[in-house]
Structure formats: structure tokens, C-alpha cells
Prior knowledge:
Elements: H1 3-17, H2 24-30, H3 35-41, H4 45-68, H5 74-91, H6 93-101, H7 108-134, H8 143-156, H9 169-182
Amino acid sequence: xxxxxxxxxxxxxxxxxxxxxxxxxxxxxxxxxxxxxxxxxxxxxxxxxxxxxxxxxxxxxxxxxxxxxxxxxxxxxxxxxxxxxxxxxxxxxxxxxxxxxxxxxxxxxxxxxxxxxxxxxxxxxxxxxxxxxxxxxxxxxxxxxxxxxxxxxxxxxxxxxxxxxxxxxxxxxxxxxxxxxxxxxx
Length: 186
């Protein structure tokens, strides 16, 4: 059993039971280990949670940063970032659910270590919107608020999205992009 497999299995357990509802024994059972053997890999459930959060956020940072750094129009950049973000969430539902809903379960010390990465991720979105404002592509008085609103909208998608549903994740991304860039007004 590799560490990656343990992390993926733990994310699945946390998603199904919630961090506080899951035990080390639950994780060990899913990976066919004894609880004592699991402690050979991780010192605590908090360590597992932090590693899940770090991995999920690192994946998002790498993929989204690559788009944010491209020399393309601000609206196209935002469209691509939205599409990539939702694609990653859809392809990694367990990791995404833990990242979005179990962050609050981190102990204060671990949260303080993890928060700068979350802030860096949010700044990619804020900066992309601010860049569009600066170049006259977007009209937005508060890029930070717009970024948080967009992230909140996208984050909630994992609570209702189904791969077997009527819309693909790409179509949902396009709808979100159009809503953000064109609004509801006629």
C-alpha cells in the first residue's frame, strides 16, 4: 500500500463520513491494514487531513497557475481557469470535498501552515480579474469579492454535480463563465 493510495482512501472515507465521523480504524479497514499499521505511515488523523488538503491544493495551484501565467486575454484566461478548476474538482471529488468542507477541521497550528497556500490560490483568481479590470476588459469595483463569489459558486458544484447528469462539467464551466462575464441582464 503506497502513501498515495492511503491518502486517496482516507479522502474517500472523510468525504463519506466527514472528518469528525471518520476514525483511523475506518481508514485502515478501507485499505485492508490494521490500525497499528496505519500509524506506521501517519502519526494522526490530523496529519492525514493536512496531507489531503495540501495535495488537493497543490494540484489546483499547479494547474491554475499554468493558465494564469499565459499571455492571453483576461476573459479567455478566466474561462480557461474556470474550466480547469471544475474539471479538477469533478475528476477528484473525494479530494475536492475534503479540501472544501473539512478545512475547518484542521487544528489551529496546521491551519496556519496551510492557509498561505489557500490565499495564494485565491489570489490567482483575484489577480486574473484585476488584470481584466486594468486592461479595460472587465468592469469590477472589487476583484477580491468577485473572486470569492466565483469560487463559492464553483465550490458548491461538487454538492450537486453528477457525471451522469444532463450537463458535462465543461458545459457547466461555460455556463458559469457566461454568467460571470455577461451577467443576467438582457
